[in-house]
Amino acid sequence: MPLNKMRDAYPDLYALNRAKYKGREEILERRIPLLDCQWNDAIQFLPLHPRKIFELQVKLGLIPEVYPYKFFEIDPKLFDPEKTVVFFKSAPGEENIEVKWLSEVDLATTQEVPQATLDYYKSLVGTGKLPFNYQFVPHIVYMGTVDISGVQIITL
């Protein structure tokens, strides 16, 4: 469920997930074109396997190892296409954002870690700073809720 809906339904879970935005709270207010909602009024998903993200971070020495993460594998066909977009951010700055309807995007073209993400990770090598895991990675943004009761769980 979107973070804004979580606030009333599950206040402890809301606080835990909102803490991920500490120091970058402005993202929560970001407007999602086409959906005409805020970032925290929708749910964000990766179009690529999360293992690619974490293995790259390990290889670059940003994190010591991929410890047990769990992810839900959700088929994008379950999303209402009129409430689903793909959010692309190719570099820092709001001018580098592109949003397309999911139906306009071939998800096969989003299966690799973007060069901007690799460059961002490389800029952190040796600094001791932890990366924002999904910086510049396309996001599937869904303005709705998802029943996860029957979905597969991926463990890294």
Describe this structure in words.
- The chain has 156 residues and is of the alpha+beta class.
- It has one domain.
- The protein is 22% helix and 19% strand.
- The chain is built from 4 helices and 8 strands.
- The chain has helices at residues 3-9, 11-18, 50-59, 115-124, and strands spanning 31-32, 37-38, 43-45, 70-73, 84-89, 97-101, 139-142, 152-155.
- The protein is globular, with a radius of gyration of 16 Å.
- The chain starts with a helix and ends with a strand.
- The relative contact order is 0.23.
- The mean pLDDT is 93.
What level of helicity do the residues show? Answer: 10-25%
* Neighbour order of strands in the largest sheet: 3-7-5-6
Count of distinct strands: 8
Morphology:
globular
How would a crystallographer describe the biggest sheet?
Answer: 4 strands, antiparallel
Distance between the termini: 23 Å
Q: Class by helix and strand content? A: alpha+beta
Which percent range describes the beta-strand content?
15-25%
Number of domains: 1
Uncertain ranges: none
Write the layout of secondary structure elements.
Elements: H1 3-9, H2 11-18, E1 31-32, E2 37-38, E3 43-45, H3 50-59, E4 70-73, E5 84-89, E6 97-101, H4 115-124, E7 139-142, E8 152-155
Antiparallel strand pairs: 1-2, 3-7, 4-8, 5-6, 5-7
Helix pairs in contact: 1-2
What key phrases describe this protein's structure?
globular; two-stranded antiparallel sheet; alpha+beta; four-stranded antiparallel sheet; 19% strand
Give me a quick take on this structure:
This protein has 156 residues and is an alpha+beta fold. The protein has helices at residues 3-9, 11-18, 50-59, 115-124, and strands spanning 31-32, 37-38, 43-45, 70-73, 84-89, 97-101, 139-142, 152-155. It is globular.
